[in-house]
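Q: Two folds, back to back.
A: First:
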Amino acid sequence: MAIIKQAQRQTLGQLIGANNPIVTVPDDSQRQYAWTKKEVDVFWADIEKFKESRESGRESSAEYFIGPVVTITVDSKQGRSLLDGQQRLTTSTILIAAIRDILWGMRSPEGISTANNIQRDYIARKSGRKEPMEYFLVLSLFDRDFFRDHIQDWSEITGTCTKIEKPGRPSHHLILDAYNNFRSKISNRLQAYVEDEARMDYLDALRECLINGLVFVEIQTPSSGDANEVFETINSRGKDLSTVDLVRNFLMEKGRSEHEKTRVNDAWRSLLDGFERREEIEKFLRHFWVSKHGDVKSHSLYATIRKDLSAHFDKRPQLYGVGAFSAELEGAAGRYAELITGSTGDVDFDAALNEIKAMSADALYPLLLSASGGHSYPQLQILIEASISYYVRWTVVGRRESTLLEENVFSAAKELSRGASLEGVLQKVFGWIPDDETFKADFLEASIPKPSQARYLLTKMEQHLRLKNDVHEELVMGDGKVHVDNIYPQKPSIELILDDHQDWVSRLGNLTLLTGKKNQALSGLAFPEKADLYTNSALLISAQTEIDTLWDRQNGKWRVDGIKARQAKLAGYALEVWPDGSRWA
C-alpha cells in the first residue's frame, strides 16, 4: 500500500509561483507534453464556462476543481517532484504566458507592467541581476529547454522569448500549438471590446480565474515508489496516462542503477525523436511487444508488459534486466521508423512499404519488425510481397474477418523472434494466401467503399498496365495527382439512378482513376458528358478498360452488366498483380 503524507487543496497560484516551492518534473518518472488541440480546446471551454459562472457571483462557482496532482516531498529537500499533473500545470502555464504576451503587446504602461508582474509571479524570475533564472515549473529533460526557450525565458524589454531551440519532437510542436491556440482564442474574445480598459479587465479576470480559481488536490508522498503506486491507481481509471508513459515509469522504478536508468532515457529519446506523432509511439510499443510475444490488445498491453518483465527483472540472479530491454526497444524503434516511413534505403522494399501504408495494413508491421531484426531488407522482399498479397486477397478484396489474419501474422512474428527460419515462415504465409479461384470469385463481387484502399488497388493495376504496355512514365502511389472516380456517379440524377444503387456505386468495376482533384459537379454527370475524360486520359485504367460498356448509348442509361463485365476484366489483372503463394513457393 502506498504511503500518503497528506492530501490538501491547492489553487494553481499555490502550486506554481514566486512564493512556493519549485515544481519539478523528474527525469526518471514523467512523460513529455502530450495534450493535443482536442484536450486544449476542452480545457479552454471549461475555463471560459467557469469564468462566466464565477462572475455571476454564485458561491458555488467560486472554484473549479481540475483534478489531483501527485508529488514527492522529502522534508530535507526544497521543492516538489511532480509525478502526476504535468499536463494540466504545463497547459495552465502556457495559457498564463499567452495572457502575458497579449498584455505586453497592448503597449500601454499598465499592460506592460501587468505582463511583467505575471512573468515574475507565476512563470520565472531572477532574484538578482547576476543570478540565474528561477523557473517555477521545471519540465523533464525531453521538454525542459524547449519550454524555457518558448514560454519561460521572456524578456521584459522586448516582450518575447529567446526561442533558441527549434521544435524537434512531437511534444515541442504540441507546446507551440497550445500557445498559438490560446493566443488565437483570447484575441478573438478581445475583439468584442473597443476600449483597452475593457480588454485589460477581461485579461485580468481570466488571470484571476486561473490563479485563484483553479483548484487541485495535491497528494503528497514520501518516495517515488509510493508516488508511482498512487500514480498508476489514479490513471488506471481514466485516459490521462498512456501505455508508453506507464511503461517508462515502470522501467525507471525497476532500474537497479543509474546506468540502467540512463539506458531507459536513451531509449525514450529515440522514441521521441524517431516518430512524428505520439500515436506512432503508442503503435510501435504494441507492435514491438507483439513481434516478440504474439497478440496482445492495446487495453491490456501495459498489464501484460509489467507482468512479463517483472518476472524477468525480479529473478535472482537476473538474466534479463531493464538495460537489456531498453536496448532492444531502442534498436527496434529505429527499424520501425524506417518501416512506417518507407525509408529503408532499398528501393523495392520501400515501394512495398508504401503499399502497406496506402492500405493502412498495420497488421503486417510486427512481422516485418521481427524479421528485420535478423535479416537485411533485400532478404525480406519475398516476405513483404507475399504478405501484401495475403492482406489484399484476404482483407481488402475478400472482406474476411481480420482477426484470423492478425493471429497468423502475429504468431509468425513471434516464431521469427524466437529463432524460426525465414524459409519456414515464408511457407506458412504462402499457404495462408487465398487461391486464384477464391480470389477471383471475391474480386467479381467486391465493393471498396474506402477511398484509400480503392485508390491503392486501382493504382497498382495502373502500374501493371503500364508495365505491360511499355509505358515508362511512373505513377506514384498517394502523390495527390490522381483521384478515384465513380463512373456511375454517387449522386446520379433521379431518372438515371440504378436499382440497388448502393450495391453498384462502389463496385470495383465502377471505379477508375482520373488526374487532378476530384470535381464533384463533373463526377455527377451522365456518361456522354464526361466520356472524353476517360478516352483521352493518360491513365490506362481509364482509357483501356472498356469504361464505355457501362453506358447504354441506345437507351441513355447506365448498365449493371457493364459494371460486371469491366470488373471481370480487372479481375484478370488482379490475379497477376497480387499472386497466390505458388508464385514464390
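A: Second:
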Amino acid sequence: MDRRGFLRSSAYFTVAGAGTLLSACGSGDDNPPQGTYTFPLGVASGDPKEASIVFWTRCAPKSGTADVDLRLEVALDANFNSPAGIIDLSARSQYDHTVRAKLTGLTPATRYYYRFRAGGDLSPVGQARTAPAAASTPSQMRFAWMTCQDWSINHWAAMSLMANEELDFIVHLGDYVYETVGAAFQAGRAEPGHTRIELPDGVAIEGGARYANSLNDYRTLYKTYRSDPRLQALHAKCPMVVIWDDHEFSDDCWQDHQTYDNANRQQTSRRRNATQAWAEYMPVDWGDVSFDLNKAGYDNIRIYRDFRFGTLMHLVMTDQRLYRDDHVVSEADYARMLQGDPENGDDSIGSRYFVPQPLLAQFEARAKGTLGRNPGLLGTTQTDWWKNTMKASTATWKVWGNEVTLNRMWLDMRTLAPAPYNNLYVVNADGWDGFPSYRAEMLGHLAANNVKNVVAITGDLHAFQCGVIYDNNDPATGKAVAVDFVSAGISSSSFYQYLRAGAGATPLAPLVATPQGFDQVLRMNNPGFAYADHDAQGYAVATVTPASFSVVFNKVKALDASGAAPSAPLAKRTRITLAAGSTVPRVEDNVA
C-alpha cells in the first residue's frame, strides 16, 4: 500500500508529505495506453526550501479537453528505484491542464529526480535540489538570474549556455513573457524558430501592435514561450524562483493600470487574466503566498516572499508592480504642461524617461501631500515586510531579488545642450530613481539598522551594470549600503538601442553615437558605477561563499548573418567580486 500523508489537496495546489511507496503505479487494465496524453511544455520545479520543493507540468489529452488524472513521482535516483514520494493529481481544463504540487518532508541539500505519469505516458525527467538546512553553513551556493526574454527579438542561445552551468537554482526577475506583439521595440529580427505569435483576442494599439487582453491571450503567450526546448531544459535542470515585472501584464504598469497612452487606463479584468495565467504557469509555492480567484479586485494574489539557504544567504523577493503608486510625474499632467491632449498620445519621455530632476521633485512633493507618505514601489504592507525582513536577517548575505534598477542614472545636460534640453535628467523614472524620497527611506533603513552585505540582483534595464548604492543617492555625501548587480535581458533589445532610437536627431544624439561613448558619459555622471555595458544581452551567475559574493556577467553575440542564433554564442565574461563586509566591487573584464 502507499503511505502518502496528504497535508492539503485542492484542484489548484496540492501539498503532500514524502513517504515510502510500495505499490506499483499505472498498471491497471483500464490504464489509458501510451499516446493518449502529452506533456508539451516539459516539467519545472520551484521555490526550493530545506524540506520541500514545488513541481509543475502541463498535461493535456491529445484530443478533446477532458480533465486528466496523473501522478507525480519523486525519487532519489534518475531511474526512480529509490522513491521519495508520489502525489495523485488532476490536470483540469479549468486551469489550462496545468498542475502544481508541493512535496514536503524532504532531506535538506539533496538532489531529487521527478517526472509525471498519465496513463502510459511519461513526462521528461527533471532535477531539483532542496535548500541547505537552516542551521548549516554551506561552503558555497551557486545560482543564475535571468530576465527579459522577448520571444520576438534576437535569440535565446543564452539559455543554452546557462543550461551548461552548475547551479543550485535560478532566479527569474520578470518579463518572462511580453504582452505585446508587433510593437515598435519588437521590430528587429528574431531567430527563425520564433515566428510571430497570434493572440486570439488581442487588442490593437497605435503603431500596429496588439496586446494580450483575455485569459486565452495570456495563456497563449506562456504556451508559446514554454514551447522552446531551451527554456524547457532550464526548468528541468534546477528549481526556479520567479517574480514578475511589467510585461507579464502591461509595459511600465502600476497596479492594474496600463501606460500605452497618457490615460493610464485601469484594466482590472485584464490584470486578473494576466495574473491567473502567470499563476497557472509558474512553479510557485502557493502554501507560502496566496492566489484567490474568488477575491474581487486586481490584488487577488501575493507573490513577495523569501528563501533561506542555511546561514549563508537570505533571498528576499519583492513585487514592484502590483502595489506601486502611479509614476510621480503623471503622463497626463505632463501632457497638460505641454498644452497637449492630456489623454491621447504617449508622453513617456518627460514623465517616465528623461525626466527633469526639478520637475520630479516638484511632483513628488505634491504626491506626498496627497498620499500622506512617500510615493513608492512596494505598497505599505510590503514595505513594512521588507524592512522587518532585512533588519531581522542573520544570514551572511542578504540578496534582494529586485526587478527595477537601484543604480542612480542621472544625466547632466545643463551646460551641454540648448533649451529645452539643458536639464539635469533622471534617465529612468520607472525605476527607483523615480521615487527618490521612498528610495532614501528604504535605503536609509538599511543604514540606520546597520544591515550589512546587502546585494541586489536586478533585471528590467536590458543592460549589465554594477554600482554602489548610497542611502541618500549621493556618492559624495551618502553612506554606501548595498551593491546593485543588473543583468542584461536574455534577448530583449538593449537599453542603448532604445536610447539611440529615441534620441533621433536631437541634441542628445551625440551622447548615444556609440555604446562605449554612452557608457562613459553615464559613468561620468554617476560615480557610483563600477561597471556598465548598456548594449548587451545575456545572463548572470553568482557564486556565494562566506567570504565573497562573485558575479559573472555572460554577454552573448547577436544573431549571425543568416539571422540564426550563433553556434558559439558567448561574446565575453566579466567577473565582479564583492568581499564580505565591503561595498567596493572588484571588476575583472574578459575572464575565461
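Q: And?
A: The mean pLDDT is 94.
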